Amino acid sequence: MLGWLFFLLPVAALSGWIMARRHYKRRYRPQEPSFSPDYFKGLNYLLNEQPDKAIDVFIGLLEVNSETVETHLALANLFRRRGESDRAIRIHQNLIARPSLSAQQRRQALVELGLDYMSAGVLDRAEVLFLELLQQPGTPPEAPKQLLRIYQQEKKWQQAIDMAKQIPANDKANTRALIAQFYCELADSVIEKDQHQALNLLRSAHHYDANCVRASLLEGRILIKIGQYRKAIRVLQHIEKQNHSFLPEALPLLYTCFDNTDNLDDFKDWLESLLTRYPHLTSARLMLTKLVEQKQGTEAAQRFLYQQLHQHPSVEGLHQLIMLGEDNHQTLIPLIKDVTTTLIHKGDRYTCKNCGFSGRTMHWLCPGCSQWATIRPIEIHLSALEKLLEPSR
């Protein structure tokens, strides 16, 4: 009750101020009372723990004219921020129903009502309002932005693309990258039934964002599926220029391509050059170990990886070394193998550079901050052992 009292008393005071102001404007009518009886009626409702009725009274006291529209909007926004969208909706509907509003004020009230519906989760009504605003002259920039949010939530990717293209140029900082992600979503949805259409969609993604790693990975998978391995190699190797952090995602696909073209020697040369550029890229080191094992045998792979781990220790590398020598040291190896297996499975494999969200599955849309393409693959280095070995709570 006290919370409502502190919240609504400023509204009551504002109503009183408006009535007093009206009184001084009309000095020639001294018989007019300074306060409407409804003002005291609203206070009575408030003190008797009937806030809904009090709100209705105070809203009625705020006569809608050019001087009080902002007061209505501020009051409704307070309600929406408090999570009381139904009350905000009532105030904005009351505003819109008044014929005295100017065109600009009506557009503003419609935008706010649409935001109320968004806050309440009534997306269909919000969509209708914002689409109505798009058809009017002087469309507020909030309309296409909110429609973009709605279509993303509803996974209507083509509508999201269309709406993103309507966002004003000065607000398009990340819009092109968003459009590329939407094209990737469309391509992902048809990849099994129509590879040609999927490739066309991915070309559109690259058009809007030349550094879209997701589009390159999807294109590489499609090209492998249809047997165009050499073309897939060019696409997947280009990921190094787009964002080398995603190379761990591309390496297994590249192995498939080089293996199917009987060209693993070239793959080995490329991996070695990759490690000169990115010495801490554990996934490339492990892939190189796999090639050494195939070409020269297990012992050679053990020696290679043992030397590498002295310079660049990692949990994945230690685990692979144990796997290569699991036939030796029968009592010690199983124990160490269990430890490294636990560490690898317990550790998060991906993290968001924007909000720090981490998990074991790749998400192109971060579940933590709802930003696209901010999650990166990570590798478990020995510096992270202490944290991973802590008991789960």
What's this, in brief?
The chain has helices at 2-25, 37-47, 51-61, 69-81, 85-96, 103-120, 123-134, 142-153, 157-164, 175-190, 195-208, 213-225, 229-237, 239-243, 247-260, 264-277, 282-296, 298-311, 315-324, 332-346, 385-389, and strands at residues 350-352, 358-359, 375-377.
Structural class: mainly alpha
Strand order of the largest sheet: 2-1-3
Low-confidence stretches: 27-35, 382-389
CATH class placement of one domain: Mainly Alpha
Question: Whole-number radius of gyration?
Answer: 31 Å
Strand content: under 5%
Reading the helices and strands in chain order gives HHHHHHHHHHHHHHHHHHHHEEEH
What can you see in these coordinates?
- One of its GO terms (molecular function) is iron ion binding.
- This protein is mainly alpha-helical.
- It has a domain of 94 residues: Tetratricopeptide repeat domain (Serine Threonine Protein Phosphatase 5, Tetratricopeptide repeat, Alpha Horseshoe), CATH 1.25.40.10.
- It has 21 helices and three strands.
- Strands 2-1-3 form a three-stranded antiparallel beta sheet, with no helix packed on it.
- About 4% of the residues have low confidence.
